[in-house]
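Retro notes (design track)

What went well: tokenization of the new backbones is finally stable.
What didn't: we kept losing track of which sequence belonged to which structure.
Fix going forward: every design gets posted as structure first, then sequence, in one message. First example under the new rule, 360 residues:
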């Protein structure tokens, strides 16, 4: 089959990582994959198979966007590629793609990557969502909670597919090498991820556990304010902002536990990957419930969003009962059997094939 992704970029991010995994696996399975990047001229940060055709919107401009030109460019690219299906993970770009392909008969699949109740709430974003609800041939959700945010009509043309993980790229975690004094978190430094909460919770932990450090991996607009927060709390020698790393799993594999402090998420890739290493994990109960679904059945610990005391208590419990924490990690390791990349890639292909057959 021939499949096209239309995406604003292929820089650091969960959606971009999923696109790269699916695209690479589909190439290995004998399919033809192309990616059209609309919102940047930066090269993909995740490794892509050389057989994947990557092209950029020629009139990209950081200062302004000509919506008419962008729609025309998407249409031109897709018609040139003549795919069986076009997939988009981003609300506005997917809406542009649906408009661009009116009259072509080429199906567009949208994948909801976040909390529908917390994102895309502006006037233009809501218009884009309405276009998607009407024009997308199918919508893929990551969790039942996200799907339930949409109308019954939309739910009838939807599926739930977990994020794929390339298990070959998940590093081995040697129990003998675990550093029980190191806590890690991986997330963009943006308000949604609420690292303020994590730092405040760790401040409480640090008063009880003097030798423990927190390392936060990611980049984003809140770098300066988080640095100030760390300074105000006197945690310069205990909390470290590590920046973004292409090989972040190698950096965190020997840490004792992983903590996610988000207010809302789609299905957090960083949490999934930590679980697949067998790392003990703690997460806030970020809406619409993806973390809760992942960490159920004693695979980890869920605490209320915005509650630094309960988050600190959960971290303290892990530190004081390491054998119980490691048992959570063992249980989390079983997630590998559900989200191996080839399994998820084949489910996507089956979905695309089904949609293609319906149209024909």
């Amino acid at each position: 089959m021939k499949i096209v992704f239309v995406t604003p970029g292929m820089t650091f991010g969960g959606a971009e990582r999923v696109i790269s995994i699916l695209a690479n696996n589909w190439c290995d399975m004998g399919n033809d994959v192309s990616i059209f990047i609309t919102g940047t001229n930066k090269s993909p940060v995740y490794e892509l198979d050389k057989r994947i055709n990557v092209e950029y919107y020629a009139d990209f401009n950081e200062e302004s966007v000509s919506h008419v030109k962008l729609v025309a460019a998407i249409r031109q690219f897709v018609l040139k590629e003549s795919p069986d299906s076009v997939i988009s993970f981003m609300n506005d770009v997917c809406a542009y793609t649906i408009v661009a392909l009116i009259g072509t008969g080429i199906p567009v699949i949208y994948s909801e990557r976040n909390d529908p109740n917390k994102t895309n709430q502006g006037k233009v974003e809501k218009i884009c969502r309405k276009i998607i609800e009407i024009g997308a041939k199918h919508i893929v959700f990551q969790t039942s909670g996200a799907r339930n945010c949409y109308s019954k009509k939309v739910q009838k043309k939807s599926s739930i597919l977990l994020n794929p993980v390339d298990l070959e790229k998940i590093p081995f975690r040697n129990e003998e090498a675990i550093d029980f004094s190191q806590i890690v978190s991986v997330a963009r430094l943006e308000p949604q991820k609420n690292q303020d909460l994590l730092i405040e919770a760790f401040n409480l932990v640090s008063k009880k556990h003097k030798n423990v450090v927190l390392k936060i991996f990611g980049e984003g607009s809140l770098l300066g304010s988080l640095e100030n927060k760390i300074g105000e709390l006197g945690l310069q020698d205990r909390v470290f902002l590590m920046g973004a790393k292409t090989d972040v799993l190698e950096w965190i594999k020997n840490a004792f536990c992983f903590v996610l402090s988000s207010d809302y998420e789609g299905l957090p890739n960083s949490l999934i990957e930590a679980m697949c290493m067998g790392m003990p994990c703690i997460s806030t109960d970020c809406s619409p419930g993806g973390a809760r679904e992942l960490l159920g059945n004693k695979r980890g610990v869920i605490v209320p969003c915005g509650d630094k005391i309960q988050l600190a208590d959960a971290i303290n419990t892990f530190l004081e009962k390491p054998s119980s924490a490691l048992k959570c990690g063992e249980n989390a390791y079983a997630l590998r059997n559900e989200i191996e990349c080839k399994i998820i890639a084949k489910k996507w292909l089956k979905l695309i094939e089904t949609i293609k057959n319906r149209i024909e």
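Added context from the reviewer: The domain at 2-164+340-359 is CATH 3.40.50.2000 (Rossmann fold).
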